[in-house]
Design brief:
Strand content: 15-25%
Radius of gyration: 29 Å
Distance between the termini: 85 Å
Number of strands: 10
Largest sheet: 5 strands, antiparallel
Strand order of the largest sheet: 3-2-1-5-6
CATH topology: minor pseudopilin epsh fold
Number of domains: 1
Shape: elongated
Number of helices: 2
Order of helices and strands: HHEEEEEEEEEE
Helix content: 25-40%
Length: 238
């Protein structure tokens, strides 16, 4: 009996050691399954988080391009032009929007010189000062459908242009650039650098991500507001 009792005690001890020294295949399989479920649930939220980060960063870049051009125009007394590469557009002469290293960018601010100076032609000439903004992953010009055709309350046009810009030429046609005068007021310009009248430079740049829409509105006097489309309320919020 003593030997049998000893064997039983040893077997119980071995079982306890095995239980405390590692995991069974069933336990490992359960842990792996739980990790898979948690990952599957979390990944869409992670993707949406980074989507929102990139969308907001792109919207801030548009707003910063406007405010930078306005501030520099006032500081330097020189015309500053903001160009957007919507649909592959370049400057007024079709020159591509590039960084100094030759990489393409979606936004470029040009110091075009003082009014009436030799190179004041609304084109990117060699040696002229430029400020560029890099692209953000998953962000495009324009808008999803919805937000239908509604525009922000401070947008002058009733419908969102398909290309994503409501900046205009002096004739009223939609374009992809705007000029800031030395007094900081934005005005429309055409491809020959002819400027429109006071109040002609207002407009909105529209951006989309997979699940969000942004509208960055430039007022006729140079103020900037960033709007986000609220799907739940069906309206733009600031």
């Amino acid at each position: 009996m003593d030997r049998l009792a000893t064997k039983v005690r040893r077997a119980d001890a071995d079982r306890r050691i095995r239980r405390t020294s590692g995991f069974t295949l069933i336990e490992i399989a359960i842990v792996v399954a739980v990790i898979g479920i948690v990952t599957a649930v979390a990944m869409p939220n992670v993707d949406r988080y980074f989507e929102g980060v990139n969308g907001r960063a792109a919207a801030r870049s548009v707003a910063h391009a406007f405010t930078h051009a306005r501030a520099q125009a006032i500081r330097t007394g020189a015309n500053h032009v903001v160009f957007f590469s919507i649909g592959g557009a370049g400057d007024t002469a079709g020159n591509p929007l590039e960084r100094p290293d030759g990489g393409l960018v979606p936004i470029l601010v040009l110091n075009d010189g003082t009014p009436g100076s030799a190179n004041q032609n609304c084109e990117i000439d060699t040696g002229e000062e430029t400020v560029t903004f890099n692209a953000q992953d998953g962000v495009g010009w324009g808008f999803n459908a919805p937000p239908a055709a509604s525009t922000p309350p401070d947008e002058e046009l009733a419908n969102i242009p398909a290309g994503g810009s409501s900046l205009r030429l002096p004739t009223g046609a939609v374009t992809t650039w705007v000029q800031f005068r030395p007094d900081g007021v934005p005005v429309a310009i055409d491809a020959a650098c002819n400027a429109g009248q006071l109040g002609s430079g207002g407009g909105t740049i529209y951006l989309w991500t997979e699940n969000r829409d942004f509208a960055i509105t430039l007022s006729p006097l140079g103020g900037v507001r960033v709007h986000t489309w609220n799907v739940n309320s069906g309206a733009w919020t600031s």
